[in-house]
């Protein structure tokens, strides 16, 4: 077992403005996210593994060995990747806690997969055997390189939490196979689903071997020239319509678009390609300004699971796939490290609280694949024992025919300590607010910090310097963009008002000293850009990083009838309270008339709930955007 | 050649409140629809035939004979049906004008298809030969019964415009095959795409043979019990989720839903099944009140080409498939004849002017498959020489991989004289306003009427009685529901104000007398039900039966930036004029803010165009619903 460099870090750019701190540096100690990490460890990972055993996706590897795979194979063409994503989650989880059980789970799966790899490094349960489709016969839909990508990402996690074991060596052989097959002079092809790019780039960083980064760059450069077949949804579906460095905004399948952007960002950083980096950054900035939901969700169309046009953000048909949110966080983390600009950490926070936290049922046994902002009819309770065939299942289902999201949540929760803090510019930056113990080094000098907070229940974040060099430590704390005045930083008696962005502590802090960031955690009305026509003249309520929702359990009526009286204000309790009037329920005539109807009668004051909590009390209607009376 | 009964009538209920008048009774003489019928005769039918030759859908029949079909077959599994729909159009067109050319086209196609029918009556180019899938091996997607349905509908058209020729006999053999195969004791199956029901019911009426109506009833009753496989979109996609007589609103694939409703209405009428009829009527009434666009379009989702939930009517992603509009007209015509209620003729009118008229390019060489209410980015000109792979092609394409719509438009235009007038309750009813010569019989006495009008350019409709029995004729004219006061009926000096519904002429009219209906043809603001959240606080403009649209050619800017000043009024010219303010163009930041933005600067007065005219001046952005400043 080799020495572990960069312990517990999903990404380690060779050069960056900010240096990430990994699972060995940041320990999350309870709170909102600590609870979810615990649920992941106790429930989500086991739940996913049990389902993948039950539906036969893991057994595919066994059948590959006993020769019965052709008749017995189960799952879609990308099912191998979910096993790898689960293993990535196990690897981070073992890295996070040292859990022997997680390590054993990982190794047991390794033993089943390892013998399936072919001598030349190829590994896939769907292709290449007699009676199966040949290898690389379907770049549009085959997902072979996508599966390799997740295999390699799992291996990077394993290497950075355990070391180079047999699983890691297997992934390296697979990556070598990919380079041999698709390198310069090899097959001039790209996969329908990006993912290999981001994986190869990180493997290159892990091993310090440019070969893999060059291969990732090749895949990035090849895309956008029409190598993939035109389909009903157009080549934009797989971003093969416009070269990456010429595109101006994300489009097509949202997960594909974001995985590609993450990989392109890595390639740009590692090759010093400023033009490519600027293109990826500009695309992401435009996507955030024009194609992102107030929840941080991405993907406006069920058709093609895709981004819509600019400002096409319908609440009811919001796809906002959980995986797209996670993929967008991957892009944001890369841009944050490279630029130090706060909007990327802002979006990570928004996605964490409103997509990642929303996706999973509070008991850990159900998941949203799509995260709608408006459920018009009470969802149906999904069946308990069969995977849901519907991505837009109306309530959280225990498993899906396409079940990419649960394992994506698991790997994200297990590794999320890596998104809390960084070092750079001679300082420590705090990006996300969680109770945590943080170890860092600035100018080779060790620093330890304790962060305590009830965030997001309140906005008070206290950082205590446990140890620091004698000159003290310079701290910078993100003041989220949702702050609109009233945030302060206090060190002793010195209290300064701070604006959105990275607030500098008023002075260096020495061991034993502490600093308090106070963010105004109050409910607020949020108005959409008027070009987002499908929520025109409607408002949402946010409180800190969280978006709130009106659920029919609280309203006592179908939320589709609700109109909100903004002038009546927002109640002050733990949960915002609003004044709602109901429009008439009936309506059997032609619905286009000479005058618009308004809500009737006395307004009822109704509590909103955090969006991430909706759908946990049984079938309900729910909406985030409320028409203004 | 047998005697032709009920000349030129698509449907002839054995019992009904109103009796339709067919192509032999009503001659459309120019005007808005006469021009379109002429374009159909001169261009659309030939265009469709040329494309179907070019893409090989007609040649499939030839290849079936020369044994090369397996390798040479072109088109989707339902391509035979488009050939039959084209032949239906030719049959009506021959019936309408007596065109020898149309007759020859029809007969030439008959000669190519006839020999392909198998001895037991089966006929399909996609299934059943060595090397093809077996017959009836894929009820969900195979479309065999759908193709038979269109074959039979074409045969009904032929029989009612020409007589029982070889084509008609072929269709009867096919229908007999269907009854033998799927009758009581036969295969207990239903097709994924309804259409056979409405076709068999009409064949039963044509031949006076209950067998076909019983078979149609069987298909109707079998549906809704989960005989078809569950799919990602659910069994509602093909209406196999709820029995027809228990459903309360249309759902799933819009064309499927409407073809089924038309067939179920026919079955209910012919079998005297009042419960079934009431169910279909209630479904249609609910669909009109909660799931229909202001254009009369149906289908809110590209995914599954489907109805959305109640009040889910997004303008930009409006699917509003042309075929769904036509199918809804088929339902309306049946409900109108059965009940005499005006809302069905109102919806037929709305669909005619805003879906059927919109679908086809003004030069007759392009078609919209989907009819969006908001085009956000300038559409791309489709390629001229290849079928479009995209149903939501951004501008009218000459042909589609799935090209059901052009031939549906053709058969509708050629037969639309049958929707103009009826007899019943001792009167003649005028439902649609076109320049026309009308022959009818009331109580076995002949009546001739001349209708002259510039409708919808103005609202003046003059009916002159050319001949009538001595006691005169009782006339009833539809006053559309869009009339909101100000409509009058005048006979000589007697002028009475009339309200929406069927206005009775103030007295019987004798030969030589005339009557004038004056409808206030003025531009009006229309407000949506507030539950249609995606157009909340937005208005549309209508003028008579036509919906108007803002196109960027007239605005001189992207319509996405438009906000309308309703208080500034509607200009009075031929085309309505509105006052538009533009919201800021830029926007690179987070689009959810503490306050909403409003349009800036002096409003510009801008002309609207009839929605059906949009997209004829090259790439443009366009919207029907305008946010209120």
List keywords for this structure.
homodimer; 629 residues; Immunoglobulin-like; 3 domains; 23 strands; Beta-AFase-like_GH127_cat (chains A, B); hydrolase (chains A, B); hydrolase activity (chains A, B); Beta-AFase-like (chains A, B)
How many extended strands of chain A? Answer: 23
pLDDT average of chain A, as an integer? Answer: 95
Assigned CATH architecture of the largest domain in chain A: Alpha/alpha barrel
Radius of gyration of chain A: 24 Å
Coarse morphology of chain A: globular
Uncertain residue ranges of chain A: none
Strand count, sense and closure of the main sheet of chain A?
A: 7 strands, antiparallel
Sheet-strand content of chain A, in percent, reads 15-25%
* Fraction of residues in H or I helices of chain A: 25-40%
Strand line-up in the sheet with most strands of chain A: 2-6-7-8-13-10-11
Oligomer: homodimer
Instruction: Give the number of domains of chain A.
Output: 3
Structural class of chain A: alpha+beta
The pair of chains with the biggest contact is: A-B, 71 and 71 residues
Termini Cα gap of chain A: 66 Å
CATH hierarchy class name of the largest domain in chain A = Mainly Alpha
Number of helical segments with 4 or more residues of chain A: 15
Say what the CATH topology of the largest domain in chain A is: Glycosyltransferase
Keywords (chains A, B): Hydrolase
InterPro entries (chains A, B): 6-hairpin_glycosidase_sf, Beta-AFase-like, Beta-AFase-like_GH127_C, Beta-AFase-like_GH127_cat, Beta-AFase-like_GH127_middle
Protein name (chains A, B): Glycoside hydrolase family 127 protein
GO molecular function (chains A, B): hydrolase activity
